[in-house]
Amino acid sequence: MRLAATVSRVGPSILLTATSESIAFLVGSLTPMPAVQIFSLYAFMAVFIDFLLQITCFVSVLAIDARRQDADRPDLVCCLPMNVSNNSTEQKSKGVLQQMFTNVLTPIVLGKSLVRAIIFAIFIILTCLSLSTIHRIPIGLDQKLSMPKDSYVL
Question: Where does the sequence pass through the membrane (predicted)?
Fold first, then answer.
């Protein structure tokens, strides 16, 4: 019921947005420039396939997940029923992943340990590595793709 109400609210806006973006990219594919034409066709197909997946597969997966939640099944091993013994109702309503993040990972990361320093050091190292290799990325576009094949500029 909640899923049907949600889809009925957001479905028309998803349809309108996907339609307008698809039409815009299709119009963009009419240009004689090969690079823009190829990009527009790929973008059109990406938006169209994304729309189809949102309306079909994503809604189906949400419906299956809603059934799992209503049956009080855990989120990791959804085939097994949830066996929570004498915990509060708040703990019972939390899934396995949420309990793991709340009880294990959050205290480790935010606790008074070296974990924060290690995470920060890894972030700094990855940033420095990224900055050291950024000059190897080729700049620009192949100029033959930017003009039509029969252009006098080529």
Answer: 12-33, 39-64, 117-137
